[in-house]
């Protein structure tokens, strides 16, 4: 049996979690709207713009996944990292030194291998069902 202070703390943490997710969702909508209006104003769409929109959509997917399941899959932040590094590579490839380009592509490879490892672990060693 939980004591009243534990229940209060759990409710307070849950409230803070939901407020944080709401702030993230609103900030993502604002940033996405700004990016779309910039593309409309310039009448051009670049690959870096599309990758940034994918980053925003991935943030929405993370918030949605949390609300659907109450959990945040580890893969989502890994996907965000992959897309963010790919965007960085696309934007700065002309000015990037060889060693930095190798480091970024190596980081993308490591994150991709991490996703595969996490997926394998989830399939091979599934979590017990919640009661």
Model description:
- With about 130 residues, this protein is an all-alpha fold.
- It has one domain (about 5-125).
- Helices cover about 80% and strands about 0% of the residues.
- The chain has helices at about 5-40, 45-70, 75-90, 100-125.
- Helix 2 packs antiparallel against helix 3.
- It is flat.
Largest sheet: none
Q: Can you give the helix content as a percent range?
A: over 70%
- Rg to the nearest angstrom? 19 Å
Helix vs. strand class:
mainly alpha
Percentage beta strand: under 5%
End-to-end separation: 16 Å
Shape: flat
Count structural domains. Answer: 1
Pick out the low-confidence regions.
none
Average pLDDT rating: 90
Number of strands: 0
Assembly state here?
Answer: single chain
**Helical element count?**
4
Sequence of secondary-structure elements: HHHH
């Amino acid at each position: 049996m939980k004591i009243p202070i534990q229940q209060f703390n759990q409710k307070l943490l849950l409230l803070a979690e939901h407020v944080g997710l709401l702030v993230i969702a609103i900030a993502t909508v604002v940033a996405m709207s700004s990016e779309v209006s910039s593309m409309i104003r310039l009448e051009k769409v670049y690959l870096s713009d599309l990758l940034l929109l994918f980053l925003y959509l991935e943030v929405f997917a993370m918030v949605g996944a949390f609300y659907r399941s109450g959990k945040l899959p580890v893969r989502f932040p890994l996907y965000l990292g992959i897309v963010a590094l790919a965007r960085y590579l696309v934007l700065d490839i002309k000015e990037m030194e060889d060693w930095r380009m190798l480091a970024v592509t190596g980081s993308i490879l490591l994150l991709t291998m991490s996703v595969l490892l996490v997926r394998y672990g989830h399939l091979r060693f599934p979590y017990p069902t919640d009661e």
